[in-house]
Design goal:
The structure is a single chain. The protein is α/β, with parallel strands linked by helices and 203 residues long. It is 34% helix and 23% strand. The chain has a 6-stranded mixed beta sheet, with helices on both faces. The longest helix has 19 residues, at 158-176. The termini are far apart. Bound molecules: guanosine-5'-triphosphate. The site of guanosine-5'-triphosphate has 21 residues, from helix 1.
């Protein structure tokens, strides 16, 4: 039987407890949202196949527990990840400050060439905003990675964020295999913003 996909990419979401990692994955994989908070214990994954540049990309998205006590279990999963999504909550300053620690954790535990993406989630809660978009843009620029503000609740930018990461991984892997002409250059800053309506930082 023919393979149902061209590529399988393993993605991992990390970030403080309660920032919305599980909700982002459920929004992306099942187009659903639940406001009841059930903290993740250990690790779990969901799958969705997306179409990028005519290629079927199967995304296996791993959800980690943000709680410190699960750290040894979850960091063991960094190694196999091709893309890591760092999530903070725009209404929680501490979760943004901790992004630096999560970055360090990636450096210590993930493969060197892993693609990273920064997400400021819960952007539907503008009245409770504590982290300005510009702060996160600056951080993303410093690390040379893309940045989106998302809402798992309203679904704003969720598909865009996952697709942009998948696209970057695809581009990187086709470059590596010498097929860079097969995938058009990934969204430049302008088209990235045009597509998503979000501010993007380029790596
Ligand atoms: N308003 C709003 N609430 C959200 C959003 N995303 C998640 N939440 C809420 O935030 C709480 C925590 O969400 P989770 O997805 O469980 O957070 P988590 O990062 O997986 O947490 P851990 O499993 O403990 O690491 C839940 O009550 C969600 O309903 C969002 O985009 N907007």
């Amino acid at each position: 039987m023919a393979k149902a996909y061209d590529h399988l990419f393993k993605l991992l979401l990390i970030g403080d407890s309660g920032v919305g990692k599980t909700c982002l994955i459920i929004r992306f994989a099942e187009d659903n949202f639940n406001s009841t908070y059930i903290s993740t214990i250990g690790i779990d994954f969901k799958i969705r196949t997306v179409d990028i540049e005519g290629k079927k990309i199967k995304l296996q998205v791993w959800d980690t527990a943000g709680q410190e006590r699960f750290k040894t279990i979850t960091t063991a999963y960094y190694r196999g990840a091709m893309g890591i999504i760092l999530v903070y909550d725009i209404t929680d300053e501490k979760s943004f400050e901790n992004i630096q620690n999560w970055m360090k954790s990636i450096k210590e535990n993930a493969s060197a060439g892993v693609e990273r993406l920064l997400l400021g989630n819960k952007c539907d809660m503008e009245v409770k905003r504590k982290v300005q978009r510009e702060q996160a843009e600056k951080l993303a620029r410093e690390h040379g990675i893309r940045f989106f503000e998302t809402s798992a609740k309203s679904s704003l930018n969720v598909d865009e964020a996952f697709s942009s990461l998948a696209r970057d991984i695809l581009l990187k892997s086709s470059r590596r295999s010498g097929n860079s002409n097969k995938v058009p250059p990934t969204t430049d800053l302008k088209s990235c913003e045009k597509k998503s309506g979000a501010k993007c930082s380029l790596g």
